[in-house]
Design brief:
This protein is α/β, with parallel strands linked by helices and about 350 residues long.
Length: about 350
């Protein structure tokens, strides 16, 4: 684990150091941090822990700087925590260069400084930009294009003609460019619709473990610059995601749907096909999206509701059993009234 002086970290992050210098060997929570670890305070509910923490220093706002011995004063502690943590992040693996156990087709081109671990495969006419890293078991198919500085972790698969921008990161088991789910019923059988398109990722896209991005039937499936996809996500054929989208685990986006920039889709949400999600929309967890979503929308539920309606539904749901009892009793009272003397006249 690397070790830095606190003053160096302050300079790297552009933060004000309050207190004396000290050696920092890592980062941890307020509760678990030791005397040579840096911590942070982003959520006010953890403020009482400042009095008990053993952390060498804490990244926090000016409001709380007087409560610790050493502080890195920040306008956005969570943001600067992430930047500081990057200083201590260990790189996966130590191999460099092209292993003799990797296969590179004679018609493929590798940029300067590429690293190919044993059992990586690069197909015909594939082009890798400078500084790309392919871990064991990576498959890069024919006619793929990788921008500079891409990292493909173990067992990533790029089927033919996948295009990656610069500095993309694909985590273990991600699969890009498999056939989209294109079938049609023909009499007693099912006819496959050939998927002749491709996949295109912008710059700095990150895709989580075991996620799948299907190739287009015609033309590309696209994911815009700086978008981040979590683990276990399904992106259907000809989907087009805008820039800086955040797509959380187990989301499914059906074919030919699209999103604007800065969209967030929370875990296990399902987006139907041929829909448009407007820029800056936020869709809550486990939502079912059956229709277009306007810009700046915030909501959740199945079917999708605006935020206020969704919160009311959540609040009422636990009361449904009592409401059912009340309705049943009212029905019984109405039946008694109907069968009373007046109904016999």
């Amino acid at each position: 684990m690397p070790e830095f002086q606190l003053r160096f970290i302050a300079q790297e992050l552009g933060l004000v150091l309050q207190g004396d210098d000290v050696s920092i060997r890592g980062m941890n929570t307020l509760e678990e941090a030791g005397p040579h670890e840096l911590s942070f305070l982003a959520n006010p509910k953890y403020t009482p822990q400042l009095a008990e923490t053993k952390a060498a220093a804490v990244i926090l706002t000016p409001k709380h700087a007087g409560k610790v011995r050493r502080a890195l004063i920040s306008a956005n502690p969570y943001h600067d925590f992430a930047r500081a943590l990057a200083l201590f992040t260990r790189r996966e693996g130590t191999f460099a260069g092209v292993s003799p156990l990797a296969f590179v087709h004679p018609e493929a081109l590798l940029g300067d400084g590429c690293t190919l671990y044993p059992f990586a495969y690069v197909g015909a006419r594939a082009i890798l930009g400078a500084g790309c890293t392919l871990y064991p078991g990576v498959y890069v198919g024919e006619d793929c294009r990788l921008g500079d500085g891409c990292t493909l972790y173990p067992n990533v698969t790029l089927m033919s003609a996948v295009e990656l921008g610069r500095e993309c990161v694909l985590h273990a088991g991600a699969v890009l460019g498999t056939d989209g789910f294109g079938f049609t019923r023909m009499g007693d059988g099912i006819q496959k619709i050939p998927q002749n398109g491709f996949v295109r990722l912008g710059d700095r896209v990150e895709i989580g473990a075991n996620s799948a991005v299907d190739r287009g039937a015609l033309g590309p499936t696209c994911i815009g610059d700086d978008s981040k996809l979590d683990n276990l996500i399904q992106v259907g054929h000809n989907v087009r995601l805008g820039k800086r989208n955040l797509i959380v685990a187990q989301v499914g986006i059906a074919g030919s749907s699209s999103s604007g920039d800065d969209v967030t889709i929370a875990g296990q949400a399902a987006v139907s096909g041929h829909l448009r999600i407007g820029a800056r929309a936020v869709i809550g967890p486990r939502a079912g999206v059956p229709h277009d979503v306007p810009e700046d929308f915030k909501g959740g539920g199945t079917p999708l509701m605006d935020g206020q309606t969704f919160l009311r539904v959540l609040a009422l749901t636990p009361k449904l059993p009592d409401l059912h009892k009340t309705v049943k009793k009212l029905e019984q009272d109405v039946d008694k009234l109907k069968s009373g003397p007046a109904s016999q006249e």
